[in-house]
Amino acid sequence: MHYGSHMDNFRFQFPTGIPYYHSDNLDLISTNCSTVNCPKDAAKDDRNCRCFYYKKHKLGNIVQLTIYNMGNGGGMGTGYAHPIHIHGTHFYVMKVGWPTYNASGFIDKMNPDMACPGDTADCNLIGWADNSWNNGAVQGMNTKNPSRRDTITLPAGGYIVIRFRALNPGWWFAHCHLELHLMDGTGWAYKVGDDDQIYMPPDNFPKDCGVFILDKRNLCLSGPIRADVGSFLPTNSGQAADRLGSTRIELPIWAERHTDRQFTELPTRPDPPG
Ligand SMILES: [Cu+2]
């Protein structure tokens, strides 16, 4: 049994072109998540859940993310901790919600702050156990001297709360830095600012590459933008393995359910002292 990597119920799929040049028509270079059939209880290696999952953040806003890794897969002996790495910004670690561990160091119980009924349950799109924590009002955050970094380990059976100020306009990527998980879709993109606030790459940047896919030699297959780009889209790890003629790698990811469920865009306020 195998569960694919999910973020907010989706498995991240890279676009086949450069978003900077296609922000007015991303569908040309990517699968829109709104058209993807990904049920709440999506499990296993559901290819229907692959899409270019991204969030928009207003330039200058403070963004607070809660990312959790609970439920089926967060339990003892099956869960993975995920090193979550975010490009384009550093962030403050406002809180780490740990599970409890037994005397042997294994997970005893998952963190109770999330309304996940246990390590055998599907806990996708869960919320806080205490509704008063909604809309960013998480209790227990370190607002005095939080650690500032670009990677944080998301513990199995727990969650993290991070904040950053969206001051770096552009398209950015965030992902688990276990490369197999990254390949399998544990990531998301985010766009800071509106198009007229985003600097374009230099004029001589090879944008005409247009739609590209990685073939077995990692070549950029250049050419005009194709109207039938959809036929190029599946570039997931399984197919990459198939292209190489090898057996599909069965990733040992058990129902990881680390989900950013809020992406709350808080009103601008001073950065925490760092
Ligand atoms: Cu991971």
From TrEMBL:
InterPro entries: Cu-oxidase_C, Cu-oxidase_fam, Cupredoxin
Domain Plastocyanin-like: 58-194
Highest taxon, organism lineage: Eukaryota
GO biological process, one term: iron ion transport
Keywords: Copper, Metal-binding, Oxidoreductase
Record-level Gene Ontology MF annotations: copper ion binding; oxidoreductase activity
GO cellular component: plasma membrane
CDD domains, A to Z: CuRO_3_tcLLC2_insect_like (cd13905)
Protein name: Plastocyanin-like domain-containing protein
UniProt source species: Diploscapter pachys
